[in-house]
Amino acid sequence: MQLAAHTFGFVWQEEAEAAVAALAGAGFRRIQLMASPPHFDPWLDDEARTARLRRLVEDHALELLAVDLASSDINLASAAPEVVAFSVEAYRRLALRCAELGARHVCVGSGRRHALLARANDRLMQSFRPAFRQVVEVARRAGVGVILENHPQGLLDSAATIARFLDEEGYDDIAVIYDVANGFAIGEDPAQGLRLLAGRIGIVHLSDSPAGQWRHDPIGSGAIDFSAIRLELERQGYAGPVALEILSEAPLAGLLDGVARLVAQGWHFDGGLPKAA
């Protein structure tokens, strides 16, 4: 499998350039970028800034797998057309930044479900379906792919709902980010979730969490069974990116410690490992 690191943990501590340089210096060769101020602002149409960041990525021979928007800032499933329009425009801006940065994918979530009125979610899907199609179209025009992520607050919170949505809409070319902590937060067995999405997985996100909570904690600090996840991915012959997405006071140290803990549990990654691992 291909080891990668997400910059989410750096968002409130460092600008994207410093985080990318730190990850490259530690030995990571694949990254995923969180597009959220103050880390990286996707709304700024600043070609000079994106050119500098792309040059940094290229100088370190990094692969930029995908770029995310903060899920708290947008909602493709809103019942308010103005909110949906804002969210589609946000993804359009993100797709342009992805093209400028040389990123492979725009990471898209499924909007937010109504946690208190479950019967409202069918109506919210009526907003989400055409909005998602618009995002796919604007990303394709920008020359970047779309990758869909499971999210515990989203309409497509489980592996089964994602698989069903992609089948019903005919999105054979859209891959999935399966975030094990996001699945664990809704009570889904991550190994089973990965099994349901076999053949669709483009990136796997790893972090830990206590049972019954939604967290992205350092690996080994929670209740997620990473050995079972590894065995399922090996059973599938998965050879794609596995991105550690960990929130901690010391983000780089948390990522490096996570790699070491995974390796100790039998995980194997192509190429060299980061320095502290």
Automatic annotation (TrEMBL):
Domain of life: Bacteria
One Pfam family matching this protein: AP_endonuc_2
Signal sequence, start to end: none
Gene3D superfamilies membership: Divalent-metal-dependent TIM barrel enzymes
Record-annotated Xylose isomerase-like TIM barrel domain positions: 20-253
Protein name: Deoxyribonuclease-4
Organism this protein belongs to: Bosea lupini
